[in-house]
Amino acid sequence: MPNLSLAQIRNRLILSARMIMTDHWPGEDGSCPLCRYPACLAMAGARAYLDSVGDPYVPTKARRAPGGAQGNPAG
Ligand SMILES: [Zn+2]
Prior knowledge:
mainly alpha
């Protein structure tokens, strides 16, 4: 196991938490598409970690708010 700096460990945790957020982000019915629960513990844990490090990450697929276009075309 390589010796990682705290910053590297932190970055890896952030990347992992972001992937969890993307995978477990609620679908149109408000439930997690993987866990099938409205309150997904995996996403709650990832969100709590990202909040603790000040990362306001939101998955790309969730940035288009229905009915609330922000005039920000993809790309
Ligand atoms: Zn989930």
